[in-house]
Amino acid sequence: MGSSSREERSEIAFFDVETTGHGQRIALLEFGAILVCPRKLVELDSYSTLVRPADLSLISTLFPRCNGITPDAILAAPTFLQISDRVYDLLHGRIWAGHNIKRFDCARIRKAFAEIGKPAPEPKDTMDSLILLTNNFGKRARDMKMATLATYFGLGEQTHRSLDDVRMNLEVLKHCATVLFLESSLCITAQEVEPNTAQRNPFDMGQLSDEMEESYEMSSAVAVSDGRSDLAGFLEPDEVLTSSISASFVPFRGSQRIQLFHEAILRLCCSHLKVHFGISTKYLDNAGRPKLNFVVNAPDSLCKVLDACDGIAQKFSSDSGSSSEWRPVVVIRENGFVNYPTVKLNIPNTISGDNPYGTEMYQKDSGSMQKLVFSKYDPAELEPLFAPGTFVDAFFSVDLYDYQQNAGIRLVAKKLIIHSN
């Protein structure tokens, strides 16, 4: 297809890259793309090629991969500089589409152009099928890998070759659209019985994202009334079957984050945890306020669950294309200390609202329980409440972070019941 102006480029460019290396030393091994008519969803043009990286040391130890990419094939391939004009013409001014491209493929393309000193192509818009399908099919194919989605729709095995993967991506989206169309038709039939029910466009991804984010925030909150908590959804460690823990992307503040599930969102509760180290104010948040946390002794049952969570989350993060360094420090262990292992519970700060802390806190004394109300942000006010040796009942979420090339798990306290000594 010949070049055209950006305004005329209505085709959707599905693309995918295969890479080698890790951290800051990642090199492209393959680029593949198809141009798709947005009206008929048919393939109009295609292009794929292996790519020889500038740093040949990245492929010197490359073993023959199951997808057929071998060191000899890479050595015989053109450099990215040699294919850059073709890649630019395919991508620039078109809608970019692919699976997890916002987080992985787009960054790899821009970096490749930067390395050869050429301006990178810019999209008219970007459609990440990982985000779209997470919004619609999270409960059907929870880990949202392309291989899992292909199996769900009976499309065969993923080859992990760029051109095959983008074609499979298109077929997955076609099947998804068909299911949504059928479900929307059934929804319309139900609305004929209940005419007051508001009709929703099932293809409005923005609306779906907003609703799922709201649902996520609501499910992460702890309902509290007069010191009595709604414990639905909080599991004791002994109730968790580690083989049933899974990870998936969920919408979060206009983007997405990795969330752990155990049927529903995984949240834990533990009673009578002993404070080992009191309130810490070592690190600061973006507003310059200390990030608050304290350390408690962890029972073996909790350690078992958190170790499983750490392994599952780390693998999902890596498989999703994150290049961040994983920090597996959920359970803190030091040989020779009788009070270990321990875990760190975080007390989040709030930006607005009456409560300066994002954790509900109660004090229990002789069978009665009183909600603690704080008028201002003052870590010194919390220090005597969480003195070493104090016992707490903790209700917390298992949250994943990926920030400034560091990733891992943090335990965020939703509700704390502090036992008076």
Helix tally equals 9
Alpha carbon gyration radius: 25 Å
Task: Output the structural class.
Answer: alpha/beta
Beta strand count:
20
Residues in helix, %? 25-40%
Shape: elongated
Strand content: 25-35%
Sequence-ordered SSE layout with sheet pairings:
Layout: E1 12-22, E2 25-36, E3 43-50, H1 71-75, H2 80-91, E4 95-98, H3 101-115, E5 125-128, H4 129-137, H5 146-152, H6 162-193, H7 205-220, E6 224-225, E7 228-229, E8 234-235, E9 246-252, E10 255-262, E11 264-265, E12 267-284, E13 290-297, H8 300-319, E14 325-326, E15 331-332, E16 342-347, E17 360-365, E18 368-371, H9 379-382, E19 391-403, E20 406-419
Parallel strand pairs: 1-4, 4-5, 8-12, 14-20, 16-20, 17-20
Antiparallel strand pairs: 1-2, 2-3, 6-7, 9-10, 10-11, 12-13, 12-19, 13-16, 15-16, 17-18, 19-20
